[in-house]
Write a sequence for this structure.
């Protein structure tokens, strides 16, 4: 497998309904269809929707990650995102705000918010990644991950988060500046480390599942500008 595919395939859960994009449903679905028809559609994960708005989807054929603001039953639901530990029908349940130990006991998955109203410090995000690794918890990250590298405003870079998951040295990986990482068909490389496709696929399956982004095209355009994607 191409290492780029192993690291980036189905990485971006499309959260166009959520801030800062906050698109109306019709526009969000149109943007999602455009993403599905694009050259880099292989990077597109699930469409993220509040449970309370499922009816607005009509018969749209789309795998969904549902934010549990109400009860919901729909055959398209592949994952639930919630702040409440408990039993859910979906096979993948991502819990935000509970302790990692509690999530592990429940056999569920973790969710971390990387931006929005609050940007976690590097040390906090690093401790979360490390804690998931130690407990063998799969996690997803959301909010504030539009950019490949950290921004002057303090936003985290999604390449940095991927590097923290793949290589460890979480604080250093999260602080690494533009140009620090190399990714091509052969491997993902940083600071003397190199991970090939099989290791990258393992990390995506066993640790960092996906990132939520209100934009699909902005992260893709940054990877194109870095000549990681062609």
């Amino acid at each position: 497998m191409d290492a780029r595919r192993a690291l980036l395939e189905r990485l971006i859960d499309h959260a166009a309904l959520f801030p800062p994009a906050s698109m109306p449903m019709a526009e969000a679905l149109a943007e999602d269809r455009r993403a599905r028809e694009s050259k880099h559609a292989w990077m597109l994960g699930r469409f993220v929707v509040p449970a309370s708005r499922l009816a607005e989807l009509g018969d749209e054929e789309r795998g969904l990650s549902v934010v549990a603001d109400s009860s919901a039953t729909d055959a398209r639901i592949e994952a639930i995102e919630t702040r409440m530990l408990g039993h859910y029908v979906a096979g993948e349940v991502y819990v935000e705000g509970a302790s990692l130990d509690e999530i592990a006991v429940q056999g569920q998955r973790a969710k971390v918010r990387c931006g929005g109203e609050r940007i976690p410090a590097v040390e906090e995000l690093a401790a979360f990644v490390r804690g998931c690794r130690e407990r063998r918890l799969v996690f997803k990250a959301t909010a504030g991950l539009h950019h490949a590298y950290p921004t002057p405003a303090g936003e985290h870079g999604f390449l940095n988060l991927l590097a923290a998951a793949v290589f460890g040295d979480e604080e250093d990986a999260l602080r690494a500046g533009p140009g620090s990482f190399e990714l091509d068909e052969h491997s993902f490389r940083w600071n003397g480390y190199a991970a090939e496709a099989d290791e990258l696929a393992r990390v995506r399956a066993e640790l960092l599942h996906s990132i939520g982004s209100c934009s699909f095209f902005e992260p893709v355009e940054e990877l194109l500008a870095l000549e990681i994607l062609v």
Summary: The chain has a mean pLDDT of 96.
